[in-house]
Structure formats: structure tokens, C-alpha cells
Amino acid sequence: MFNNSERKISFKKRKKGLTKKVDQELSTLCGVDACAIIYSQYENQPVVWPSPEVTTSMLTRYEDFQVWKKLKKWPIKKASPISAS
């Protein structure tokens, strides 16, 4: 089992790796908007990537989309059955 200082060091490394993946792999390579909110016992405030303003904007867009989706009651398109010939 790790002691507390080793856990903290491990957390910092993993946090850095996670934000790098969100930035370089999801955002850049996939061309999508991405954000991360990381809570930790080692910090008073959560780490918000890329920034609190951008993250709030993304979450608001997501919530608005969910409301719109429910209002529209999107029909689920079923695949047509394959006919046996």
C-alpha cells in the first residue's frame, strides 16, 4: 500500500496524463469538444479543464440538448428485417 505522499505524487501524474489525453486525443485528434472535472482529496477545488467558463458552456449545451431531445421525442429507427430469399 502506498503512503500518503506516494498517493499524492501518483495522483498528480495521473491527473496530468488524463488532461493530456482529453486535450490531445479527444479534442485534437477526434475534433470534439471535451472537458474534464477532477475532484481530489488533495485540492480544495476541483480541477476544471480547459477552464471553468468553457466547461460550464459545454455542460449547458449538453443539458439544453437533452431537454430538446426529450421535447422532440426522437423516434427510434428500427432496422428493417432481413428477408430470407
UniProtKB/TrEMBL annotation:
Single GO MF annotation: DNA binding
SUPFAM superfamilies linked to this entry: SRF-like
Gene Ontology CC, one term: nucleus
Alphabetized PROSITE patterns for the sequence: MADS_BOX_2
MADS-box domain boundaries: 1-41
UniProt keywords, alphabetically: DNA-binding, Nucleus, Transcription, Transcription regulation
Domain of life, source organism: Eukaryota
Subcellular location: Nucleus
UniProt name for this protein: MADS-box domain-containing protein
Organism: Penstemon smallii
